[in-house]
Design goal:
The protein has about 775 residues and is an alpha/beta fold. It folds into three domains: about 350 residues, TIM Barrel (Alpha-Beta Barrel), CATH 3.20.20.300; about 190 residues, Rossmann fold (3-Layer(aba) Sandwich); about 110 residues, Immunoglobulins (Immunoglobulin-like, Sandwich), CATH 2.60.40. It is built from 22 helices and 28 strands. It has a six-stranded mixed beta sheet, sandwiched between helices. Strands 19, 20, 21 and 24 form a four-stranded antiparallel beta sheet that branches. A four-stranded antiparallel beta sheet has the order 23-22-27-28. Strand 9 and strand 10 form a beta hairpin. Helix 12 packs across helix 13. It is globular and about 75 Å long. The two termini are about 20 Å apart. Bound molecules: beta-D-glucopyranose. The site of beta-D-glucopyranose (BGC) has 8 residues, from loops. Its EC number is 3.2.1.21. It catalyses: Hydrolysis of terminal, non-reducing beta-D-glucosyl residues with release of beta-D-glucose. It is an enzyme of class 3 (hydrolase). InterPro entries: Cellulose_Degrad_GH3, Fn3-like, GH, Glyco_hydro_3_AS, Glyco_hydro_3_C, Glyco_hydro_3_C_sf, Glyco_hydro_3_N, Glyco_hydro_3_N_sf.
Length: about 775
Amino acid sequence: MKKFIGIALLSLSPLFMAQQIINQPVQTFQTAQYQSTKKAFIDNLIAQMTLQEKIGQLNLPTSGDFTTGQAQSSNIGKKIEQGLVGGLFNIKGADKIRAVQKVAVEKSRLKIPMIFGMDVIHGYETTFPIPLGLAATWDTDLVQQSAQIAAREAAADGINWTFSPMVDISREPRWGRVSEGSGEDPFLASEVAKAMVYGYQGKDLALKNTILACVKHFALYGAPEGGMDYNTVDMSHTRMFNEYFPPYKAAVDAGVGSVMASFNEVDGIPATGNKWLMDEVLRKKWGFDGFIVTDYTGINEMVEHGMGDLQQSSALALNAGIDMDMVGEGFLTTLEKSLKEGKVSEAQITQAARRILEAKYDLGLFQDPYRYGNAAEAKKEVFSQKNRDAARSIAAQSMVLLKNDNQVLPLKKQGTVAVIGPLVNNSVNMPGTWSVATKHGSAVTLVDGLKQVVGKDVKILTAKGSNVEDSEKLENIYAAHGKVVDRDNRGKEVLLKEAVEVASKADVIVLAIGESAEMSGESSSRAEITIPQTQVDLLEALKKTGKPIAMVLFTGRPLALSNVHETPDAILNAWFPGTEAGLAIADVLFGKVNPSGKLPMTFPRSLGQVPIYYNHKNTGRPLNPQKVEKCEYERFRANYMDECNTPLYPFGYGLSYTSFTYSEPRVSKERPKGNDKLQVSVDVSNTGSYDGAEVVQLYVRDLVGSNTRPVKELKGFEKVLLKKGETKTVTFTLTPEDLKFYDHKLNYEWEEGEFDIMVGTNSAEVKSKRIYWSK
Ligand code: BGC
């Protein structure tokens, strides 16, 4: 599905009126004159560089403010003076960064400025929902706005390079890093990837408020065996190209300036040393011309992978096409020796240095090394009310209403509300994982947000009700990176009793349960994906009060909710909403915002179903659809004896306070031919009693192919605002480009034949029209 190309003004919200939506790669704005001046400048610089200085450009230490791996760099200042550092990451603050840059441009021989990176993953100090939540908006303009604001804040504070977007497709909810990506679908994730790249990079990288993006983790990091972080990945090439590669490629097509290699192996060779991946696929096939950085100590880790010692691993990485070595100093300490021994060539080192210098040139650092980072500017921009307002509104758009029996939601602004749960008064958990720049403790808690939104109209009572987890040991593991959960050691029974007492004085219960922030994210794999039992017990105890329960779910991953979803009247999945968490949740609970988020990843009934994803293939023995519907077992068919085939909540699912109906889809031709454009239209009506937005989804199934094809694939989506009683026609355009796939010989083509064109409110509820598309 082709989306409108060009530059448009967002019309959705007055908040964003003045901001541009860019959807062209930076390079397309660069003139031939610019390119040739740049080349001449860099040629001249390289001619003056010693071998050591070239290798120095490839070295990326961390400042030590935040560390996530094994190695620690030391004596960074000295090395900067010697020209042995190309960039530094995770150092925060305009003045601090300026001081380091000063060393580089005043004390090093060639005065080459450094780049300053950071994990600006879902916002800077103003923190947006976790990326999985951002994807749940299905609104690429909003995603782009979030990246744009993040870039502005980071740049004002001295950062000019972010390690984002993370676009690893994953069907593995055990893997904690699903929180950092866009979920299971290549199409949705590709749209989000592009939006983020445009948001960070804008149309000119040299502007003071745009920063270099880095798509990661290339590649396949989201498919670790057993869902255990860093684990082995093994998959067929057709699956790679059709299902896992598209979002990386979309980021490359959007002009992303850098790529980060993943920790895992790809086809038996760690990505960091994988020449096929970096050179053949990324550079040659996709035409990527930026630089490639390893992940944290990625080269050193090849030693453990069994690829040889540090010298051998470093040579392997350079030969594979890696340009920059994050933290491990393998390049810095071994490349000279490898050059002498003929294991690498000077041309390769020069080429890598050139790519780093090109990025610095594009960022405008040779014109003004202090272009980024201005304490006065940062004071105005960072965590400004304007940015926080945007975060609040985007967070509200990310929430997914999973259930709403008896229209318990929206709540009325009257009476008494009991707000219960282990994190209802906890600020540090609200930004979620990978929020390194956030100002800890500045996020709005659920209780505070509710109080602000309801004012004096509603009496708010609160109780903790339970800890996140009964076991203190586990709870500490979950809070390992410093996001404390304020453990209450009075004992489970005391907490329960207090909560029941509070609840019995209220008209309605808002119960917030689920995960704490660091139960997802890096190194946060779980072998169970349920809500900890102590919180389920709390839900059960509150149920006995007979009061209506609106459950707010905090989570960084799809959870198996079979044991809880019957109990509350409503479930609102809030993910981790960011710094404005409490306000955004309150906006949705009290109906200021009608929820319109949709799941970017399937929620299973139980862990045994994993991997469960909507765009699966058929087996030769699929279960008959009626049996699937009724959850009936059939012997010698593809199903479980003890579990249904359907998920609890399918991909694309999400309710609204209003209701929508869909007409049958119409097509402009039933027998399109060749390069025809096929229009697919559907009338969507708001039949409920609130205005609301609906994400209309288009899926296609290729019925017969030279290779087996998925039962459906997302090919388009559009979020439409519908006033109550209103009907709008939504039209998608399909071309043969949308039908292409990689066959077993990796030819990318479409094949003539029958296709089911499906439109609906989620991946499981669609209306279908069959067409025949001939060559
Ligand atoms: C993560 C990356 C991150 C890097 C730098 C690594 O541990 O895998 O996603 O960008 O650290 O902080």
